[in-house]
Amino acid sequence: MRQFFFSLVIFALSAGAARAADAPATPGLGPQELMEEVSQELLSDLEGNREALRKDPARLRALVEKRVLPHFDSDYAAQLVLGKHWRTATAEQRRRFIDGFYGSLMANYGDALLEFTGDRVRFMPFKGDPNANTATVRTEVKRSDGTPVPVNWSLRRTPEGWKAWDVTIEGISYVKNFRTDFGSEIDQKGLDAVIQRLETEKAAPPSSAAPTSAKQASKAR
């Protein structure tokens, strides 16, 4: 179950991005339209290349970064994940945490993205207000046994367009989940020790061993 949860997180971070069409101050497409477009492009990149990507983790990471970096508000999400510890962290600690956090996720669970196919993702009708500063795009993702799982992306308006910052899977927010895990670990070991762990995991070759926070998160699943 842990692998499934984090594969959805990776998929969500890869596909989760949007820009609003109805507000002139925000360039690009609307949340629902761009979510679908980016998801289709990502799945298109995967088709026919799964085995090659499976054998080349660096190539897979580059593909995810191509889809994630322009569209995911990693700074904002990391700020929420660190919670009270963000306020006392130095600029260098913040930078290293952001880089290490997402690098660790990719190192441990990036290859789970290769299991996704277009027939496993279904976009639900959009019910948001196009003039609002926040939006939720709702989808259903099928497990390998065909069971549908509700996956909702949270987005917010930025000068560069709408950007994703959270994904909620079966009612569990990845931001809140990690905030609990990291908060406890930082209280016990300190922020520098947690950053060092994340950086070590990011640099390590792909492994079935999951990071500490991921192991804790799996208990919630």
Give a structural overview:
This protein has 221 residues and is of the alpha+beta class. It has a single domain, classed as Nuclear Transport Factor 2, Chain: A (Roll), CATH 3.10.450. It is built from ten helices and five strands; from the N terminus they run H-H-H-H-H-H-H-E-E-E-E-E-H-H-H. It has a five-stranded antiparallel β-sheet with strand order 1-2-3-4-5. The N and C termini lie close together (6 Å).
Essential attributes:
221 residues, alpha+beta, Nuclear Transport Factor 2, Chain: A, five-stranded antiparallel β-sheet, 10 helices
Helix proportion of residues, in percent?
Answer: 40-55%
Which percent range describes the beta-strand content? Answer: 15-25%
**Average pLDDT score:** 80
Q: What is the class in the CATH system?
A: Alpha Beta
Largest sheet: 5 strands, antiparallel
Number of helices: 10
Q: Numbering strands along the chain, what is their spatial order in the largest sheet?
A: 1-2-3-4-5
Furnish the topology, listing elements before pairings.
Elements: H1 2-15, H2 31-46, H3 50-55, H4 57-68, H5 74-82, H6 84-88, H7 91-109, E1 121-123, E2 134-142, E3 148-158, E4 161-169, E5 172-173, H8 174-189, H9 191-203, H10 212-219
Antiparallel strand pairs: 1-2, 2-3, 3-4, 4-5
Helix pairs in contact: 1-4, 1-10, 5-7, 5-8, 7-9, 8-9, 8-10
Structure described in brief:
With 221 residues, the chain is of the alpha+beta class. The chain is built from 10 helices and 5 strands, in the order H-H-H-H-H-H-H-E-E-E-E-E-H-H-H.
